[in-house]
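To fix ideas, we quote verbatim a fold written out as tokens:
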Amino acid sequence: LQRLQGSEYIVSAFIHETAWEQNVWVNDLAYKVSVVARTTPQYADAVHLELKEGQFFTEQDQQQANQVVLISETVAKQLFPDRSPLGEKIRVAHYGDGDPGFEIIGVYKPPAAALRSFMAESHLIFPLSFQLYHFREQVDLAEDAPEFGEIYIVSQPGKVYDAVAEAEVLLADRSVDDMNVRGEYLADSMYLRDQLRQITLFLGAFAFMAILISALGILSIMLVSVVERTPEIGLRKALGASRAVIMRQILNESLIFSLLGALVGLAAASFSAETLGTMLMQEMMYQEAAAIGGLHPQAALISAALAVLVGQVFGLYPAWQAARLDPVRALNDN
């Protein structure tokens, strides 16, 4: 890292590694944090990390393996809504029950959107001495081997390719067997983000068409139902049924159709979402993130609510048509 920082093309260099689904304890309560990271002190200046309170850890903290941690503003609001989290302790599950915990020394605000497209947004930041739970299980290294795999550099203006080329040369001399040194660029991740945005727009358009087709289907079915049941509706109105009662009956039937459609759609989505999400993440992003695909409960609830809403809106016209039928004409037509 010092050799990289000594380059004329490199402004700053830092090590940064992330892990998913880390179990932590706060005040004897267990929590699962989606993304955590360990990094070097240069990270804060390199990415212009904005601290809400407290401070970032120092070289001394890293060298002495001090058990300190920074938490995101989101985590701070959830875990410590009515007080400052500075000085509080976070215990990490895989460190064991005897671990005294990591002291919170700072709270940071979310990084810039461009940075989030290049690296996962973490909610806990530890010094590099922190042992990520997944690392030694996934990589077969000697006990004294360095335990990091990603080094980020900030280049001088206009010297991006020179900086990457020099970094690859410097790191290739120190790499171990069966490890490749390969540069990636922030612009590539921004291009990936644009691709994901296009995929999202395409899926959104596809979903809109599916909703429109289903809405027209419900409208057609209910109109046909009203026509076929004209005598029945006329008889009910002749016996005293009000317009509100007739409309409620048609809307209830429309609700049943939309609920059945929502259940079938959610069942299909639950089987396909994880598989498709995993394939997409493996193809376009990081292997470690491949397991996060799946049907989100909030998305499922929103989808079901939207299906019910569409069914009720497009059932209004058939219900109104049924409610305004003249009972005498309906019975005579029969």
Observations:
- The CA atoms of residues 168 and 182 lie 7 Å apart.
- The two ends are 89 Å apart (CA to CA).
- The longest helix spans residues 186-228.
- The mean pLDDT is 77.
